[in-house]
Amino acid sequence: MFLETQTNLTADIKIDQFFDSQSKYTYQEYIQKVVNYVTNFLNNENFYSGESPNNLRLKTDLLRANPNATLSIDEALKEIKELYLDHTVAFHHPNYVAHLNCPVLLPAVVGDLVASSVNTAIETWDQSTSATLIEQEMIRWICSEMGLPTVSDGVFTSGGTQSNFMGLLMARDHYAFKHYGLNLKENGWSDIVSKFRFFCSEKAHFSIKKNAALMGMGYNSVIPVATDDKMKMQPNALVQAIEKEKQLGNIPIAVIATAGTTDFGSFDPLDAIAQITDEYDIWFHVDGAYGGSYILTETHQHLLNGIERADSITIDFHKTMFQPVCSSAFLVRDTKHFKYVSYYADYLNPLEHRDSACPNLIEKSIQTTRRFDALKLWFTLKMTGAKTIGSFLEKVHYLALDLYYSIKDDTDFEVAHKPELSTLVFRYVASEVDFDTINLFIKNTLFKSGQASIASTKLDDKIYLKFTLLNPKSTIDNLLNIVQLIKETGRNYKTHN
Ligand SMILES: *Cc1c(COP(=O)(O)O)cnc(C)c1O
To answer: Is the pTM of this model over 0.70?
Structure first.
């Protein structure tokens, strides 16, 4: 009769799949089943099955065979087990030592499940209510750990890359406003901006250059500053670089210090750099994506001295606070600087209805729809506690030191540095084969076989291996096992090639 009320049969059945009060038993059933499958993933023997990329592609192709067929929960779980859970990379595995991926804490997983199910969108009060307050509370907590003043503020972001973007953007727009009365947000590019220069160490994260490019300023607006033999920015070299750019007619606007470089875990001397940014009256951003969380430790807190003088800070909870991705924050010394990113949309957060009792976090973010990622951290602080997180971080640091002392005199290896944080960069040198070739061979062979995942990086244009340790349950024996695998693989190259 009425076309509008005609529905097809499948839609009638599938309407059960919405998360609502009628489907609560289905929800429980699904979650229980999925928990069983995910628990089984923990039984995987290796960090990765070693299945070849071609076979994985073939499995994925099968999915294309009948895109309209729908599966039951059991069928879907079985399929995803064979396609993904059996073959994906397990960051909790002791033989996973490649990148800055941490094993996650169970309280954080609980928080993520709640956040995904309830599906709060955090950007406005009318979509989130107390979730907004919880995010702000997490921000207040970390700002106070960092020693920032009470006018400080922050926002959760998708990661260190986005947080660094916000730092560079604020530094630029603030400088343009303060010194030239320019409103770049409203009026866009001005020629003078072509002369603006950022300074960071040559070991800083690539996202500094990438973000400068995204901001239309190009890689060349980022001036690399020399590091010392401990991979830390040299304050003298910073001053020289600033002076040189000024002589060239360019305009220094910000220094980005790294607290925990990605490869070497080195901390730039924050206090000395703060002194310099004060003298030149320019922005001081600290990229603490990796090392920022070490503010919770006793061993490393002193390396963060001076972070309380920063204009803005990046910190990644999904690296060193054992949170599932994404969970990261951008912190700013003075909340008023958020004006450089805020926008007032009639349908979401009209300026005339601004109400401090019901804040709209969209005014601080470059995202619009945004996950309630702060909830994971809330569960973690409540159930694990900040002090314990600090002790986990100390543990992985000592693990890196143990490894260093175990291999530094081993003639099979050349070790690039003494770990300041929880990475160790070294290379295998017991070979007649070109060292770059043999080290890449070792890394690729161990990955492909599912035996161990190690990273590689470059130092002085030479290829090195890198261990990144973020698993406090790992032991020195676990690590020496991987070292043994490296040696065997290195020796095998000779016999097989
Ligand atoms: C990992 C890292 C980043 C980037 O963070 P994402 O969360 O991966 O976007 C930035 N800076 C440093 C020092 C890092 O180690």
So the answer is: yes
